[in-house]
Amino acid sequence: MSTTDRNDHDETTEPITDEVHHNSWSANLERPKYADDADLAVRDALVAVEHTAPGNHVNLVTHGDLGHPETFLYDALEAESDGLSVEYVERCGCGGHVSRVRVG
């Protein structure tokens, strides 16, 4: 999947980010539109990682309805990007999950 494919959004979908973050930050993949769309969550997670400068991390906060991110997200991250480390942080009180992705 190319960066262009991941950044192509229909008129109703706003991108998760459009700037490169030169610090550690969090990407909110917990909004209702992600609740039943793991593919959208993966696509936007990949965009978030691509927009994180090396030496920083992005916290990916995924919707609880998707289940543990290890089941749908981690393999996709590792397949698409070299030099990443993915770590499960915690389950949020609201039911979502936080994963930290360090960009090498």
Automatic annotation (TrEMBL):
Alphabetical list of InterPro entries matching this protein: rSAM_target_put
Biased composition (Basic and acidic residues): 1-22
Spans annotated as Disordered: 1-24
Name of this chain's protein: CGCGG family rSAM-modified RiPP protein
Lineage of producing organism: Archaea, Methanobacteriati, Methanobacteriota, Stenosarchaea group, Halobacteria
